[in-house]
Amino acid sequence: MNKTAIKNFAIWARNELIEKVIQKAKIYGIEKEQKMEDMDTALNGQILTNDDKEARKVLIEKIKSDGFDITIEEVAYTWFNRFIAIRFMEVNGYLPSHIRVFSSEDNQFEPQILSEAIHIDLLGLDKSKVLDLFNDGNKEEELFNYLFITQCNALNEVLPGMFQKINDYTELLLPDGLLREKSVLDLMIKEIPEEDWKEQVQIIGWLYQYYNEERKDKVINIYKGNVAKEDIPAATQLFTTDWVVRYIVDNSLGKYWIERNPDSNLKDKLEFFVMPKNGEIEYIDEKIDPKDLRILDNCVGSGHFLLYEFDVLIEIYKECGYREREAAEYILSDNLYGLDIDERARQLAYFSLMMKARSYSRRILNKGIKPHVYSIPESNNIDKKYFEVFGSSLATEERIKAIESIKELLANFKDGKNYGSIIKVEEVDFELCRRFIEDIDLGQIDLFTYQAIEFQEQIKNIFDVSEVMAMKYDVVATNPPYLNKMNGQLKEYVNKHYKDYKTDLFSVFIHRNFDLCKPSGYSGFMTPFVWMFIKSYEKLRKYIIENKSISTLIQMEYSAFEEATVPICAFVFKNGHEDNKGLYFRLSEFTGGMGVQKEKVLEAIENPNCSYFYEASKDNFVKIPGMPVAYWVSDEFLKNFKKTLLSDSCTIRVGMHTGSNALFVRAWQEISIVDFTDNCSSNVDSNKSGKKWFPYNKGGGFRKWYGNQELVVNWYKLGQDIHKFHGIPMDYNGAPVRAKQLQFKESATWSFVSSSYFGVRYSPPGFMFDVGGSSLFASQSLLYYTIGLLCSKISFEIIKVLNPTLNFQVGNISNIPLITSEEDKEIIISLVKENISISKIDWDTCESSWNFKILPLANFNKYMEIYYDSLYEIGIIPERKEIYIANLEGAYEHYKEFANSQFYKLKANEEKLNRIFIEIYGLEEELTPEVSDKNITIAKIFDSKDEIYDDIKGNKYILTKEDVIKNFLSYFIGCLMGRYSLDIEGLAFAGGDFDQSKYSSFKPSKDGIISFTDQEYFEDDIVELFVKFLKVIFGEENINENLDFVASVLKGGQNIGSRDKIRNYFLNDFYKDHCSMYRNLPIYWQYDSGKNGACRGLFYLHRYDKDMFAKIRVNYVFEIQDRYKQELARLEENISQASGSRKIELEKRADEFKKKIIESQQFEEKIQHLADSYIDIDLDDGVKENYKIFKDVLSKIK
Q1: Domain final position from 571, 605, 632
Q2: pLDDT at 236 over 80
Q3: What residues does the Type II methyltransferase M.TaqI-like domain cover (predicted)?
Q4: Which residues constitute the domain of residue 80?
Q5: ∠193-198-201 over CA atoms, to 5°?
Q6: Across the strands, what pairs with 777?
Q7: Is 183 found in the same domain as 94?
Q8: Do 577 and 485 reside in the same domain of the chain?
């Protein structure tokens, strides 16, 4: 099946049909938010008949009641449903007329119904009208429309659940141009291969899902909050992958039959039937007639589960001696039941089921069988006052009982579309209720009685649905809605009836379907797999483990199911407690989508001894805190959970929630450093400091040991602004300002959400922490020991048992077993300290760290002194060496050698820790100590990308020579701006008073402004300043080889000189790299006149004052304009004396300068306004807000 073609067509068809229906409505004077007057003539000149006028009137009332958009959408999907239904029937030869409606016998877009128009016989067809239209010759489209609508109405006789009589207003809005090229009908025939329609009724489901896809995306985008009732179908409907349906049905319906029929051969026909490893089935001594089987899908969608269940039931009936056509009738009338909140889905499920039956029985459409497929009704508009019309001949006692029962049923379905089949319906006397509602005296019908009769069918439908919802079923199998953003009404209902299972609607359905299932019946699902592990579903797990049985389960790879944005699992429960082990497939490691998952399941069924197929007793789950469904863990692994848990020895807490990070959180480089301190150990210290900004642990990407120290939080005067924002008193201690007493304490911290692995980092005193940077507190020795454990393989394996969803919750960390080995404690702590030290050196090597001291390429020996000091602090006495650095390349080579040795040292230490902890936890037979290079979270340097090997790919800390040199160029800019100085360590200026005495070796820009030009115009030309910078560091003798070394990693051809390459980098690429380094919160801001680069340069945010743009205008823009004019004058003089190609070249160059002059003049006008405005900025407002003020003259940040 070509799903790409199906998807593309369905998405396009929805938009096309909506547009065409809107156009048709406009012809009848009906537009959105326009007054709709009476009319006799349509806008296309058509005289409206009385029927047309009445249809238009009804349409207007419909729009007033439901809204324009909803009405148009409803008409569009009505036609879409009919188009695809008739297309399916014509391709498969199921139309009673046996005449194709849209295509010819050879599948051309030449409707056979037109060529056979005068011969066709359809119920309700006006043959004289057909003859007139046919003979006219110019009314082919009108003839087709009439025949098509007549065909739809005729199909009402055999498929009333799909082809309801078309509303007059719907017919009025049948799109024009259906016979034209590239119409919906044309592309439906041409774009979707005919074979995809043949005996593959699943195509209806795929078309339905894809038709709704854009609306689903829109709904999900709109409802960042809760989803409204009318949008629940669009937000939650997913077409279940075919093989998953087969797996669930094979192991629910299939297993239910097989274990009651020892002689059955059904299992040989069920591809996904799972046998225990011993190959033995435990049979149940209970005979059952296939006609007594009851199967329900209460989120039926387009009927995918019912369709495959139909096929399985056919095999069951055949085993019992029935013919296929007999079986098909019984299946429709006795076996299958479906419910959905969406009427469109109900229609398609009904149609698909009837087509499935038709494939087994040619005459079944004429049997008048009504499948038990319903949409959930609503009773909101039914007035109970009409009850007095009914039941007049019933005895008083019966009448009272019937009215009470009906009132109860109607109450259940008030706002029924919001609740769907989670509505709990108690058994009532449905036979009595039906007698009551059908008991009406038709002899004297007044207006009141007539109005009551209008509600009769609606009430009968509620009886039908109620009876389905009150029954018990042998098998309930479905793909329930995944929805945790419930609207208020739905949330209230769930809280009232399913309080312990309220986290998501799918978990409500899991519990609800146990109620619908008979004891020892089976309940099958496909859902997100979070219910197996995370704390918010613990009560559901407890209920299942204590009262039910997990028969079989597939845990899919994290992103296998592309149709959903969550990792999923498929499973079957037995509705009752049994001792048999569950059968599990762990497909977590098999990437490549659902096709790969299918292959692996089939391989495991064929070879149950494979490594990813497990048998597990649910009793083992109780041994693990939180009772996760950790079916793969060994007995040896389980023993560890009998030990002390981390929470018994450590304090583990969720952190603060500011409520508005945009107001209270900044990247540290945005603020003035004088308003910041990382030197507090308590709230008292922070208050005494008088500072506003403090380090803030908020998670970040995967990194171990040390780092991710990038953010600061406004905790001025103990967070008075945050308290005021939340309206809470200053002495309040709880959400959102949690754990006040632990803020600023030494800790271990980690990211709540990760896309890969678990990374724990040491956090020194001075930090506050956020909900995204949950933290652990302990005595110092235990803290180091615990960090070692949490950074080990052992920890990650345990976390994958407790919660493999990559959300590392406090509860999960708390439940990690802590086994303290006194014998190994000293070496563990020593290794942990060294790893922290190695990672800290790496983190502080980058200028994006506030503890950055010196760039290794600028002063490698000084950098090494800092490293030696760090070793001394942890008790390692280093051998200090002084290294001769001749040039920049030498500095690079020494730094690369050092960084890579640190990388391998850290890797060796991690593997040593793994080896120790694996032995402590007794898991030598299950785990190995090796660590992949991609999981070592410090820099490793390669000369080029070509050298990067597979085992390290994906490591975001990889550096190339290009990266290292660009960091050197960034450091040069920092020195030129005055942020850094070659004469002191760390920051020289990032706010406060600018101190010129800090700079002697290399002087910074006098005003914090740098100009970039495409050639040397000024004394302070950027390339010449860089040359000067290199000479200060490395001397004059190697200047050219240093420039060549820098240029060797920059863009540009072989014929471009080193100075020009460097110039081009600053002019065109530096700012992109700078923004990337500082995560789009740059500290040097690039002013930019436009695409010609006439005026481009940087100014340093922390040196900004209200005269900044006046300085740029006078000292840089005016100056460059003069140079351009001088250059243009020189070129024009040369042009007057040149000829031929030389003249053309000079004229081209002159044109470039003319463009630059114009661009610079336009730019000067822009900045004059800013210069005259003397704008002050507040650094505390952050880069994003301040950047907006000057956005018209600054480069866009991408």
Answers
A1: 632
A2: no
A3: 335-560
A4: 3-200
A5: 105
A6: 651
A7: yes
A8: yes
What are the pLDDT digits (tens) for 1069-1097?
999 999 999 999 999 999 999 999 999 99
233 and 327 part of one domain: yes
Check residue 222 and give its pLDDT: 43
Cβ–Cβ < 8 Å for 1061, 1049: no
Residue 409: phi, psi to the nearest 5?
A: -65, -45
Show contacts of 86-91: CB within 8 Å, 24+ apart: 86/148, 86/151, 86/152, 86/155, 87/188, 87/189, 87/197, 88/197, 88/201, 88/203, 88/204, 88/355, 89/355, 91/194, 91/197, 91/198
Q: Is residue 289, in this structure, part of any structural domain at all?
A: yes
What is the per-residue pLDDT for 484? 81
Same domain? For 464 and 488 the reply is: no
- Residues 299, 523: contact at Cβ < 8 Å? no
Confidence of residue 18 (pLDDT cuts 50, 70, 90): very high
Length of the chain: 1198
Q: Could you tell me if residue 1198 is inside a domain? A: no
* Residue 1197 belongs to a domain: no
Q: How far apart are CA 289 and CA 972, in angstroms?
A: 85
Task: Supply the pLDDT for residue 1018.
Answer: 82
Say yes or no to pLDDT of 848 above 80.
yes
DSSP state string for 1032-1097: HHH-STTHHHHHHHHHTTSS--TTS-HHHHHHHIIIIIHHHHHHHHTTT--SEEEEE--TT-SSEE
Tell me the pLDDT tens digit for each residue of 747-775: 999 988 766 688 999 999 999 999 988 99
What's at 793, amino acid-wise? K
| Burial degree of 376 (CB within 10 A; 0-12, 13-18, 19+) | buried
Last-in-domain residue among 916, 932, 952: 952
Q: Are residues 509 and 592 in the same domain?
A: yes
Supply the CATH number for residue 343's domain: 3.40.50.150
Residue 124, phi then psi, degrees to nearest 5: 85, 5
Token duo for residue 595: 């096709």
High-pLDDT (> 90) share of the chain, %? 75
For the chain, what is the radius of gyration of the CA atoms?
38
Structural element, H or E, at residue 906:
helix 888-920
Give me the number of domains the chain comprises: 5
pLDDT in tens, 193-231: 999 998 788 898 889 888 888 776 665 544 456 777 666
The reply to whether 590 and 603 lie within a common domain is yes
Tally helices (H) and strands (E) across the chain: 45, 22
Q: Is residue 250 located within the same domain as residue 277? A: yes
Average pLDDT, the chain: 92
Are 888 and 1026 spatial neighbours (Cβ–Cβ below 8 Å)?
A: no
Class of residue 21 by CB neighbours under 10 A (exposed 0-12, middle 13-18, buried 19+) = buried
CA distance from start to end of the chain? 40
The helix (run of H) or strand (run of E) holding residue 648 is helix 646-649
If asked whether residues 917 and 982 sit together in one domain, one would say: no
